[in-house]
Amino acid sequence: MVDQSVFISIEGPEGAGKTSLINALAPELRQNLKRPVLTTREPGGNPIAEGIRNMLAADTSVNMDARTEALLFAAARRQHLVETILPALAKDEIVLSDRYLDSSLAYQGGGRRLGVDDVLALNEFAIDHVLPDLTLYLDLPVEIGLERINQQRQSKIDRLDREKLDFHQRVRETYLSLLERFPDRIVKIDANQPLEQVIQAARVELSKVLEVES
């Protein structure tokens, strides 16, 4: 698969360590495969999607309707896909995205109780059948993830981070249900362990879709 594009998403509840994992994996892949690796995030990845991200995260959006929120995430995802992800894949790059479709299914479908199937239908219009080749789901207890946020990025806590504990519990439960629903695409990694062990577990899974030693 050396000469083919590969799309990998990293998912997980708050504080799971997605960004840290991507920051560790990207330089390794560039060095080992001698290929371009695009690191990106959702919502975001380009000016339009980043503008939507700012709106979603702002404290002034505290009264945002749940369906409005789901629609905005889907809109940002569409722009991210057509402006950032697809052009990279067309150039046979490896794409590592911090969140993608499953975040909406977990946060809006489960956390906001909009229903996974309804949010999936909305996002199917946005993504037009483009799914990751592999999704690494970083799992850990909600309380531990939120404590990590409070300790490590107090200045970056946003509107969703401040949701009540039961919201975050529903998000994690939904992620676990997605793992059972899409076992051919989503792989669970225990994020409640030292970062180096998380990275090594990710290497093993990446070696199955990329010609790189684990």
UniProtKB/TrEMBL annotation:
Q: Cite the binding residues for ATP.
A: G12, P13, E14, G15, A16, G17, K18, T19
Q: List, in alphabetical order, the Gene Ontology terms for molecular function in this entry.
A: ATP binding; dTMP kinase activity
One GO cellular component term of this record is: cytosol
Give the matching InterPro entries: P-loop_NTPase (IPR027417), Thymidylate_kin-like_dom (IPR039430), Thymidylate_kin_CS (IPR018095), Thymidylate_kinase (IPR018094)
| PROSITE patterns cross-referenced by the UniProt entry | THYMIDYLATE_KINASE
Q: What keywords would UniProt list here?
A: ATP-binding, Kinase, Nucleotide biosynthesis, Nucleotide-binding, Transferase
- What Enzyme Commission number(s) does the record list for this chain? 2.7.4.9
Specify one Pfam family: Thymidylate_kin
Q: Which SUPFAM superfamilies match?
A: P-loop containing nucleoside triphosphate hydrolases
The alphabetized list of GO BP terms reads: dTDP biosynthetic process; dTTP biosynthetic process; dUDP biosynthetic process
The reaction(s) catalysed by this protein are: dTMP + ATP = dTDP + ADP
Q: What does this protein do?
A: Phosphorylation of dTMP to form dTDP in both de novo and salvage pathways of dTTP synthesis.
Q: Which family does it belong to?
A: Belongs to the thymidylate kinase family.
This one is known as Thymidylate kinase
| Gene it is expressed from | tmk
